[in-house]
Amino acid sequence: MPRWEPMLDELMAQRYRHLVAYARMLTGDTAKAEDLVQDALIATFGRLRTFPSLIAAETYTRRVISSRFIDGTRRRAAERRAVQRVGAHESDPAAGPELLAEHKTDVERALDLLTPRERACVVLRYLEHHSAEETAAELGIAVGSVKRYVHDGIKKLNTALGTDSDAGAPFAPVEAR
What we know:
The chain is mainly alpha-helical. The chain has two domains: about 90 residues, no CATH class; about 70 residues, Winged helix-like DNA-binding domain superfamily/Winged helix DNA-binding domain (Arc Repressor Mutant, subunit A, Orthogonal Bundle), CATH 1.10.10. About 70% of the residues lie in helices and about 0% in strands. The longest helix has about 35 residues. The C terminus is likely disordered.
């Protein structure tokens, strides 16, 4: 048995649910979150990587999840812009994001308004309880960028939700579903 298989088995048994909860906060959809986690696990363990601990394997997988989410969002935005440039239209606009958004909670809808980086930073800082430094390390960006994305994200969330929360104020812990 290759050395990476026991680590993957342990990660799946102990942390899979947490990885899916994290991905769900990014994507806003359980099915998309599960797909994102599976893609991240394939990317993480598909190259026969070994990790010194479960924490290291989970940390690396979370970073892959974040990166894949941001890259996918950028790719879809670029595709939408290209379609608009050539004048094509979606065949069924009723099946688009607007229909899906009607079934989401207010917070999920508000999170959808954020850019991928803002959403990732807000989720990591306030739902995963990471420090600005931990968030920066996980996303591979500067601490100052994290602070800016969080500030902008909280401002957009306040506008969307009709709240007046300070980005520096502590948030109540949120449990994964």
